Amino acid sequence: xxxxxxxxxxxxxxxxxFIKNGQSDNGAAMVxxxxxxxxxxTILLSTxxxxxxxxxxxGCALDDMLFEPASVSLNTYIKDLxxxxxxxxxxRVELRSVTINTEGEMEGQVLIELDVVVRTTNNRFNYxxxxxxxxxxxxxxx
Length: 142
What we know:
Layout: E1 10-12, E2 18-19, E3 27-28, E4 30-32, H1 33-46, H2 72-89, E5 93-101, E6 109-118, E7 124-132
Antiparallel strand pairs: 1-4, 2-3, 5-6, 6-7
């Protein structure tokens, strides 16, 4: 059985963009295959439950943990939130492991590393989600 790459899905690029090249194929920028899955994971992990009008249960409540003190129990809880969100809302992949890299914690950055297997093709890939505190002020660049 041959698996077509388009079976993994094709959707709008994130963030949405529109193409206008003066020909008849104007329209929304699209992504396919693993790029579509990666962007889907970004959307899933950055969406708060309740933000989507027609899917109020969709998302991962990572923003609720943003200013909590770092601890082993918090890391375990975040891993569980991510596992459940991917299990329920991204059926194209199987999550092998979640690693939380806290090396940049003092700068407000935590990297969430996912080891993922695409179910239909059995291809493995790593996905890194930047989970960080953003300041309310804009610093001048120098």
